[in-house]
Amino acid sequence: MTTGDFVTDLPSLDDDLLTEGAPEAEFNPGISSRLPSKNVAAAALIRDGQGRVLLLEAVYKPTWVMPGGAVEDNEDPRLGCARELTEELGLEREPGRLLVVDWVPRHGVWRDQIQFVFDGGVLDQAAIDGLVLQESELRAARLVAPADLGSAPLTPSLTRRLQQAIEAQERGTTEYTTYGRPGRQATR
After folding, report:
1. What tens digit of pLDDT does each residue of 107-132 get?
2. Which residues lie within the region annotated Disordered (predicted)?
């Protein structure tokens, strides 16, 4: 049985871990600690009835962001997205279909990152009016028409990622992108 996109009659993650057996032993001691690690983030493409995109004005950076944020250690990205929506906006909702998986290269002090963008659905005016912004992180929530994304204070990579998410939502696809660009091979 499914509820939205979630299957409800499957074993729990803990059950799956138990059936996986004992954790694999390291044949080369310390090898797992030497593996690279990536940051993971999850966001939701949320729109209003007019198709405008919900963006957030954060207090901690000069550019706007999508609703969502960093996925915590050992947290499922989809559940991390739901947690962030609740924390940031007081919005209790399960993210829908995966729209974009985007690899973001190391830039400045930030490690490379995998960003997941889920379909956050459409909010009616009552839900928009009911958003409760997390004051320690957010100044404002804005609705921006897709045609106006290029003039909003967004990083170029987020503008590209948003455009890919909108197109994936409209086509019913899931896209893999590199820094918001489809089909691009990394050249580093």
Report:
1. 888 889 999 999 999 999 999 999 99
2. 169-188
